[in-house]
Amino acid sequence: MPSNRRAFGGLTLGALAILAAGPRGAAAQPQASEVAYPGSRPVTVVVAWAPGGSTDFVARVIAQQLSKELNGNVVVDNRPGASGTIGHASVARARPDGYTLLLGVNSTYAMSRHLFPNRGYDDDKAFIGIGRIAVSPIFLCVNPQLGVRDIAGLVAKAKAAPGKLSYASSGAGSSAHLATELFLRQAGIEIQNVTYRGGAPAVQALMTGEVDAAFVDAVTALPLMADKKIIALGVSTSERNPLAPAVPTIAESGFPGFEATSDFALLAPAGLPEQIVHKLSTALHATMMNPEVLERLRQNSILPTVGSPEEFPTYLTAESTKWGELIRSRHITLE
Prior knowledge:
CATH architecture of the largest domain: 3-Layer(aba) Sandwich
Number of domains: 2
Radius of gyration: 23 Å
Number of strands: 13
Structural class: alpha/beta
Mean pLDDT: 88
CATH superfamily of the largest domain: Bordetella uptake gene, domain 1
Largest sheet: 6 strands, mixed
Shape: globular
CATH class of the largest domain: Alpha Beta
Strand order of the largest sheet: 4-3-5-12-6-13
Order of helices and strands: EEHHEHEHEHHEEHEHEHEHEEHHEH
Helix content: 40-55%
Distance between the termini: 51 Å
CATH topology of the largest domain: D-Maltodextrin-Binding Protein, domain 2
Strand content: 15-25%
Number of helices: 13
């Protein structure tokens, strides 16, 4: 925080101001920890998912560069469970001092709120958004033995045999699950949901033909597409993926406006001092301008979409409204 060091009679102007204002003026001054933040204390970035997934990968890439930008030590702590709500709840209870942050994903901060009413915190009141970070595209994929090569073929096959086809998901409220439900609603078709305990077994079921289709995160789908173990019919982003430019967007394949991605954002407990919010936001922007960071994300088909603290509430409201309406209209529950 900027300070005026010009002396007056042995005292700085800042010290004179505190004396003149009395106790209230002294209390209003920032704490030393705010000025020196983060100092020697480590900053913990909580990931509400197990190690090895896309959220964990993004967190570790960001934490490494944030350590340099903040001239401190940023570490990742995995606290998985209950679709991410356990990790989110732990951060919601943390002191708003900048030493506990959250690498959140929209499947928890925008979707789970509509499925876990008793999760122990209010997303709108418990957190402040430092900013969005990136998005991960999701590919609509089928098993090669299904015999379809485009979205029109999948829709036609599903309409010819209502309820006979199946899709894999990693549980109610996951990004892949809700992306599928959004597609089914827009396409006017019904395909049976088969739930698996995680993304890996869901993709394995798709490859073996246990299910016919699935929405698969790009980082997992791309190598399987290259090996022809699965066929991608469309990508969920508004633009084609630069690592798979031949795959059309779902929007351009007859479903205008379709978009469903895994969105990553950096959050902090509500009440974080403005000076620390600003410092974290500045460091996050610098991190996302770093060429090495951008290349590591790009190699895993994770696309930067850096946002600001001021923009986050509007984004969160729109994202929550979109998925909440879908969950209600499709009667999606945890059962």
